[in-house]
Structures are given as C-alpha cells and as structure tokens.
Amino acid sequence: MNQQRKKFLKKLKKFWIKENIPNLSEVNAKFLAFLIDISWVKNVLEIGCANGYSTIWIADILEKKWWKLKTFDVSLPSFEDAKKNILAVWLEKIVDFNFGNFLDFDLWDEIFDFVFIDARKKYYLDFLLKIKKNTKPGSIIFIDDVMKFKSKMENLYEYIEWNQDDFEFFVLPVHDEEVLDWVMILRRK
To answer: How far is the C-alpha of 111 from the C-alpha of 114, rounded, in Å?
Structure first.
C-alpha cells in the first residue's frame, strides 16, 4: 500500500473512532487484506462497506491484480462516504458500489471467490445462505465481530455446526495492543 493511502486510512480511522462509526479494526483489515493477497481470488464480495475503510484495504490488494470488488451497504450516508473515500484514493475502477439491502439484490450467476461480511449482525445467516449459491468449492468467507455480537448471530453458529458438509470454519482471535477481535473464516467445501 502506498504512503498516501496509508495516511488516508489513518485519517479515516481517527474519524470513525471519533464519530463512533462501526468499522473493521485495523488489525482485522490487515489480516483480511493478507488473506486476499495470498489467495487466488479474482472476484470479491463485500457486504457492509460502512464508510469504505475495509473497502480501501480490499481494493488496494485487488488493484495490483486487476481483480474486482462488488460492495453493498444499506445506509445512504455510509454508502456516499464510501464512494467519496474510494475516489479520494483512486480505486473507483476496482469497486462496483451497490446501495440497498444486500438480501434484495439478485446476483444471478456471479461467482465470488472471497466474501467479506461486516453488516447487520442478525442477518449474518441470511447473508451466508444467499451467497452460498454464488460461491464455489474453495471460496473463502471472512466474517467480522463473531464474538463481540455472538448473541445476535446464534442462528449462524447453529447452522454451521449442523452443516459441516458445506463449510469448514474457524473462529480466530485477531489482536494487537489496541483491540482483541474475533473473526470467522469459512471455506466452502
């Protein structure tokens, strides 16, 4: 990542902390970008872009490989901020922005190699079920905040436990000196 984007992300992080905007932690963003970078993915889906912080991390990796990111958000102010922030770091050619409830969109026959979910926690299972037909064996799904908001996604945990023929999964702590966070990583079988 170039220095200008790093500076922009630091500025964006200060803003979302000050304004209490829910965003992916920096350490999780680095882990997410690392996974995408070492994976052979070409088509990435992001459900919940907030103000574009995670979108920038993802798009920066994808830009090097000319891969694409399709992102969704249901909040109009967040959606507009994300678009503005992506333009500020010259990543607009990588990102396909979609406004509205992801569950209302038809993805047709698009196949995603990597999916990042960080949206309304109570819909995580609905998101997973919807994207199941748009992933293939080996596709990776990265889900944020799985311990912090576990009570809002008990149905997701129950589904995964009972459907281990569909997915392998791990719940991992990701932390630095600032934050301890947990993510779930699934791989479609």
So the answer is: 9
pLDDT given at position 105:
96
Strands 167-175 and 135-144: unpaired
DSSP 66: T
* 114 within 8 A of 142, measured Cβ to Cβ: yes
Q: How far apart are the first and last CA of the chain?
A: 32
- The pTM score is 0.94
**Residue 118, helix vs strand vs coil:** coil
Cα dihedral 27, 30, 31, 35 in deg (nearest 10): 170
Q: pLDDT per residue over 44-80, tens digit each?
A: 999 999 999 999 999 999 998 888 999 999 999 999 9
Those residues with Cβ within 8 angstroms of residue 36's Cβ, 6 or more apart along the chain or in another chain: 44, 58, 61, 62, 114
Domains, the chain, ordered by start: 3-188 (3.40.50.150)
